[in-house]
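Quick one: structure for this chain?
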Amino acid sequence: VHGRVSETLGRELLINAAIYYQLDTESLFQYLSDFKAAQVIDREEDLGVKDILKMSLHKREKERKLFGYSKEAMVVGLSLKYIDDKVTFRNIMIARKEWANLFRLNIYAQVLLRSTIKQKEKIWQGILFSKGLDTIYMKLKTDNLKKFRVESKSIDDIISVDVLRSFHKHSKEVQEDIKNILRCYAIFNPNVEYCQGMNFLAGFFYLTTQNDAVSFSMLATLIAELNLSHMFKQDVPMLKMYCYQLNRLIAIYLPKLHIHMYQEGIDSTYFCSPWILTAFTFILQSRTTTEIPPLLYEIFDMLLTSGLKAIIKTSLFILYHYEKELLNMTYETFVQFLNAVPNKAFFDDLSITKNQKKAVKKFNISDDLLEKLDDEYKNLKIMSSKGENEGKKNVFKHYT
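Got it. Here's what it folds into:
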């Protein structure tokens, strides 16, 4: 990077070095992604004016598709953020069936902005509650639970340990309900079963609804709607991709912090895995029902209306909020601070809640940018695999 090597040449040099030194795929991928991130100081420079123009045009095209191509739908869709009346929102939803489908999440997003915490909980249920899943839960709980606890004892033991550790300040009845949500989900979705992190999501929904059947429905719908199955698979492939995106976005939006992290040998995987995997609900560990902070409600508002991008933006916001302190920290202090900071940010630092909505807008992360970074990640993984395979071929030739 300091030698002003082009990106193409730099990648070739790294791949050839990996072949020569017989590096594995993960090591080569880390070097390739570090090299890519180290080149980025300015977003405009990294993406190029043409790329940004394409993204802007693509966004406009998406808006047209989202709101339909009729003039009426376009006008209504673009007016939603200026409406400040729940009755008007309700009238839009019932005016035409196609409008209800087109504007559902946009209207939910606007209504959530103007809702109390209790109202938010009801709206979340409206977004996530899938009719029939509560009945499935009750049937699984009645007919399959005993069999599961015997035949899948190893999974059941992990669920029990995780729930006890996470919610030990709650009653045994609450703990048992959360365990049953997770046990039934493991039966319901055998491709995922259970992964650490799901205990916090299940617990969060239960603490806000006080109903295990509704919580099961919300958990199952959230995982399906946001395609979180890949997040909770054994090798957590989706988590790795989001960590890569966060690394790159730090380089784009917080270049000074990125350089400092690079110099200290730190990347986002050292601290952000629980942030992403649990959507920050891990902060509820050892807390009581009354201690769910307002900021967590704001995050779930964004999560349910704009997807996992909300977690990435919140992660950037936390780093931005504490950037001055982080720039003066060395490796060990830096990592320790960020592993502990969500509890400070959510429960103790009141200014972070006040500034969150305003500051999150600072990070105008489009879906197109995330798609570009996703493609970038996949291409680097392909290059890494090719590099490792070439290395193996060379070793084979050497010994034959």
